[in-house]
Amino acid sequence: MNVLNRRPLFVLIQTVVLVVVIMAPASQATGQARTSETVIQKATEQFEDSPLIITSLSQGLYVFSGDGGNVTAIVDDGSTLLIDSGLASRISELSDAIFRTTMRPVTRLVNTHWHFDHTGGNTYFGSSGVTIIAQENVKKELSSAEDVPFVGLRDGHYPPQALPGLTYQSSLTLQQGSQKLTLENYGAAHTDGDTVIYIAPANVAVVGDIFSNHFYPIIDLSSRGSIDGMIHSIDRILAQTDEQTKIVPGHGPVTTRANLKDYRDMLVQVRQRVKDLIAAGKTMDEVVAAVPTKDFDARWASGYVTPEVFTRMVFTSLAGANDSR
């Protein structure tokens, strides 16, 4: 039996934004962590300390933020479908908040990719009979140990109940009540198993860590991620959305297509600058010293990925370098 079914029912008071503060406000902003820490250490501190925030996008459609990657819930008359499952260490509070908000059991879970802050609740939900759905490479990544260059992430060997039971290659359609979910993989981008979910008629696009608002991204070179793939996927998302589409990023607040386009333009300009420096014979350290992100740091460097780390990932992606020091 799904443990969520055993919760008492609450009267749901629907508001535009509900804030659930389970613990004290974050003691450290993302950028305030010690400089000696890895990207993942900084990120984990933020995920552990941030309050859980619930945003209502429309009737029966919610985003849960703060507990790792953003978690989206789509509710029909009898069940809840989740997109991503947050951080393992906070799954009890997340599942409680989901049930209090939706008052329906979780029966299906879609993973946007394999990283721990988006799949941490997989074991919990999978153990209670929830069907886990993902692009086929996610099952491969979760089944083996992965070491992501530059960010300090080593994860994998998830138990069988945490693995996707339903996988797809390039496209899959699901129905959740009145909402049609179209799952698309545009090739390797942030990882080789990214899923973008278009929800209609709600006009919502859940894009995972292909886009974080307003953070420089992680490019997971261990699973074929690339700067070219990131830009390609964003171009496809822009082609499938309009100015009214609500964009749910992997991290950060729900935003607009215009903001996604700004992010895409930043990636394109940084890619070109790094390409030019590589063509001029510059080493990775020389490219970092040139600070090709400098025009964008004020807007995009507030997260746990520093301009230096982002530049090293872009360089390696473009140069095909194997040295991840």
Q: What is the compact description of this entry?
A:
The chain is built from ten helices and 15 strands. By secondary structure, the protein is an alpha/beta fold.
Description:
The termini are far apart. With 325 residues, the chain is of the alpha/beta class. It has a single domain (3-169, 176-319), classed as Metallo-beta-lactamase, Chain A, CATH 3.60.15. The protein has an 8-stranded mixed sheet with strand order 1-2-3-4-5-6-7-10. It has a 5-stranded mixed sheet with strand order 11-12-13-14-15, with no helix packed on it. It has helices spanning 39-49, 91-102, 116-119, 122-127, 136-143, 227-240, 257-279, 284-289, 297-300, 307-319; strands at 17-20, 52-58, 61-66, 68-75, 80-83, 106-110, 131-135, 146-148, 153-155, 166-168, 171-176, 179-184, 196-200, 204-208, 246-249.
Q: What kind of sheet is the major sheet? A: 8 strands, mixed
Residues in helix, % = 25-40%
**Number of domain units:** 1
Q: β content, as a range?
A: 15-25%
